[in-house]
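Sequence in, structure out. First:
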Amino acid sequence: MTGLELSERVIERAGDDPALLPSQQYYKPQEALACINQAQRLFVLISLCLETTANMQLTGDPFYRALTFFPDWIVPLRFRLPGGAKLKPSRLRDLAALDTQWTNRAGTPIRYTHSGFDLLGFYKQDSSIVTVTYARSPAELIFTAEPEIPEEYQPALIEGAIPIMRAKEGQQEWQKTLPMWGRFMESARQCAEAVRARNLEQGLDRIPVEIRRFDMSAVLKKKASK
């Protein structure tokens, strides 16, 4: 489905008529599309279902910001040297325990560390070109394009967009959409489990978060108490 088709379905299921002129609609097509984009970004963040591989030029420094190289960055999945050797993922404290001078150690990189959202560190440091496979965010969906997530999960974007769009109506109306939100999260969970199995099989360094045991009721209770 294209962004336009998804927007029309979101507007229709929210109780409006997509055939009306935008000036006559309570929910505007652009508003629906924006909510679909929010739902797709969340879906990808949960499932890590989109990935890409690219080269990264190191300059001999120990630290880099991934977003300066890759604007669609989410998390690293694997680093390799030109010959194919894989860099071992490590925590900052692991590197400090391994070598107290690790930030000044010249040589071909053998380990990397990832902290926060996009801070990358390499041990050792030189001007190598490394190949990184990383989970990426989706491109902004427009009316004439299709979502980037797998086709079988695209209808879930409707379920996710409606609660986001109807939040402006207040808590009572928003709570009516919670079953839709539950179905959206269930689709994201199913996709994440498929990606998790694939990443484990391929030996990638990062797998999607586990949301099977996530207690959404605790979040909703906290929201309702405000």
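Second:
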Amino acid sequence: MNNSKLSSISGLKVLGCLIFDIAVILAYFNMLGLFFIIAFDKSVLVLAFLLIGLILLNGAVIFPGILFKRIGIPYTITTVILILLYAILANALSVYILTWSIIRYIVWELIIFAVFLILFSVISSFSKSARDNTFKQEIEKSETASIMVKLLEIERILMGKENTESNLLSISLFKDLKERIQASTPFGRISGNNAIYEIENQIKNNILSIQECLQAESRTIELHKLLEDTYILVINREKLNLK
């Protein structure tokens, strides 16, 4: 969607909200009428809470993109519904308790607003947890995919070499390592454990070194040691994960 279309849609949203706001405020003055003159202080309070509801509703309609980015689409829909319910309840209550004292009126309106804020904080908390889980899953997929690509490249190089005794041993050690990594907990999943984080980094560095050894055709003794050391590191990572 190009910028002109987005601008047109935004303009229609603003216009729609403006027309709705004017209609509601006119209805407010029409409904209260003489009461606005007799009890000016209460009428101002009713108008204030009405405007709060309208501002929240307008913000949710005009700027949904901000909510989408911060709390996700499902939680944005829930938030918009919550704002709509607050606007309806707060203003319905305003009419119902219009004859009460100012203190009782303010107390009940503040209670409804406090409930709205609490519910909104709960939604925000759940959305933050969902965003964190999504972020962790993306890290896990990225880490796992990166390692598997390197392992496949190492396997390709090994399989392309001559079937010498030394290379057959390299293949055997590599297969053991690859199977162990595939059977282990995916990299990037475990968070908050520095020891595991350091081991994962060492394993990734070793895999990179193995790849470089094969490409540079370094000594097989060095290659075998790297394969064996990396295999042990994977085992140690699993042991730390179980503690």
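Remark: The chain has two domains: 3-132, 161-242.
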